[in-house]
Each structure stands twice: as C-alpha cells, then as structure tokens.
Amino acid sequence: MSHLMSNYLPLDVTFSSGKGCWLTDDKGQQYLDCLSGVGVVNLGHCHPTITKAIIEQASTLLHTSNWYHIENQELLADRLCSVANMDKVFFGNSGAEANEAAIKIARLHGQNKGVENPIILTANQSFHGRTMATLSATGNSKVQAGFAPLVSEFIHVDFNDIDAIKTFDGNSSVVAVMLEPIQGESGVIIPDDDYLNNVQSICNSNDWLLILDEVQTGIGRTGQFFAHQYNNITPDVMTLAKGLGNGIPIGACLTKGAASELLMPGTHGSTFGGNPLATKVSLSILDVFEGDNILDNVNKQSAYIHSQLSAALKDYSAVKEIRIKGLMIAIELNVDCSTLLQNALDDKILINITGNSIRMLPPLIIKKDEVDIMLEKVIKLINNASQ
Ligand SMILES: Cc1ncc(COP(=O)(O)O)c(C=O)c1O
After folding, report:
1. pTM check: above 0.70
2. Fewer Cβ close by (within 10 Å): the C or N end of the chain?
3. Residue 298 pLDDT more than 90?
C-alpha cells in the first residue's frame, strides 16, 4: 500500500531520466514529452546551462533567508522588471503563491481606498491554483468542491466577454480584475485580440488593478516572452512560475506603479521564496532565452504545427477546433476522449486531455524532426479515436 495521499491518480509509468524533449522510463523506453511537466520544463529536460547553474550554486550557497540580502534575487528582479517593463517583484515558490501575493496586493489596494469588501473579478473556466484564495479565484466548481467556505468577494464573469466586465463599470467595491491571458487548464482558450486591451481600459478608468496570471503563458510559451505583449499593454500585477524555474520551484509576483507600494515590511513573506538556488536557475534561463533565439523557434514551430494540423485534420468530423498560440496547443474533439491519455502513453508520447481537448505544451526547444514525430502520433491518435 502506498503511503502517498490519494489526491493524484498517476499513470502507470515512472521516468528515470530526461534529455531535451525526451524522457526515459525505468524500463529504458523513450517517450516524447509534449507536456513539459505541464508547461514547466520549457527549455527541455536537463538543459546544460541550467544544470551547470544548479551545480555551481549548490556548491556555493543554497539558502540563507529573506532576513538578509540575496544577490541573485536582486539580479533576477532587475532582469525580470526590465523585460516586463515593471517595477517590483516578490518571489515565492509556485504559481499559487504568486497569485496569493497578487490577491493580497488587490486587497491592500482596496483597503487604501477605504473599500470595505473589496471584490476581485475573475473568469469562469479560469485556473489560479489550489490554495484557499486561489481556488476561490478559480472559475471551476470541481476545483472548489468540498472546500467551502470559500474566500469571499471573487465574482466570476465569462472569459472574453467584455460586456460582462462593463456591467461593473463605476462599481467602487471592485478593486481588481484577475485573468489568464489565455486560459491554459481549461484547454487553451484564446480570447479576441483586443480583449485584454479593453479590460485594461476599464481597469484604468475605474482605478482597478489588472492582474494577469502568466503562470502558464509566461516565459516564452506563447511566442512572446509574456502573452500580454501581443496586446502592447503592461498590467499592474503579473504572476509567473512554471517556466521561470524549468523544474526548480519558483514563483514571482511583479507589480507596476502604485501596486508596487502596497506590500510593506511584515505584510507578506516566504521562507524559501527567491532563495539563492532558485533565483540562480531563473537567471540562467533568462540567459538561454537571450542567447538561443528561443522565441524564434517557438514561432517557427508553431506556424509549422498549425499548418500541418489544419491540413491533416481538415476532413475529420471528429475535430471541432484547433487552438494554438506559440507552443500552447489544443485540438478539441467531439468524440469520447476518455481512453486517449492511455493510448498516447502506449504510443510513447506525453500529452494531456482537458475536457474534450487534446492539449500539448511541448518544450520550447523542440526541433522540426521531433515536431514531425509529435504530429504523426497525435494524428494517429485522433484517427483511431474517430473510427
Ligand atoms: C494559470 C495558472 N495559474 C496558477 C497555477 C498554479 O500553479 P502552481 O501549481 O505552481 O501552484 C497554474 C497551474 O497549472 C496555472 O496554469
């Protein structure tokens, strides 16, 4: 009997090593990883620059405390603020923690304005994490089931429905709007091109904070370093995690302007957050992005995948929609998907099934010959499912 709690239901496979886009199981069989540990291992498994950074930092200093200055943390904050055009950073260890910081900042913004019960607007079908506040922000009743009472004052509106947000125009209890630029966990839901711009306009005119959860979309996943850069906007608050550590736990909450002045000494913290090891790894990830034209590869492979999938699947009645931005890919089917995960595993490819969509988040370093293997296996999977 396993002594692990039953909150996960793992597939029957154990991986023992990885390199680039490939994982090897304990029987020596190779799998093409088209999920990247759910959008985490963006630079592939055991990237040599990251491995070197881990070894060097682990042999120098792992942890002190945020009670002392941490040089790597300050360097990383400088570089993140520079690429994001933002002002300040708080470091935690996960996406949920980054979002907790964002939610606390929104509450403080409300308190400063004398708002008694500050409301945060979030979206239906969103995902923001599993802590009490972030699951309350999440627009999915399955994530919330059993955990009442939820943290109050989150109001969920339909994603990509600007009118739903406009109905709160002038409502002085609202303090923030919190959104994923593209909804990841609910199956790569891409809003209209100007949706975020319109949300930002409403936020600006009402003095609401625009909080963008880029935990999944950030660090190059969509073909821009941050997904909101497609809109030429800067949010008041942005959260990051996943690809920021490539497997080493780290989360970050970045702020711009007045939102940067809200967390004061003693109001928030984390024992491990931003420790010398995690921040060194993130610095090395930024180095790789700068040196290796990662975004060019994302955009090149994305265009190729899009054209290949569109051509190959155009006559499939089982295919409802293909959604792709950078290397966030979903193929929505209108057939039963319940066996697809296991079928894919049997064919040595790692994907995810979200609702009725096949979701793929391959490493951003994936090469054309690996993309061809991915396409061949996925088309075969859909072919079999359509029979
Ligand atoms: C958009 C988004 N926000 C937050 C989270 C939570 O991140 P973590 O699991 O690191 O707490 C996730 C995880 O999938 C996510 O996709």
Report:
1. yes
2. N
3. yes
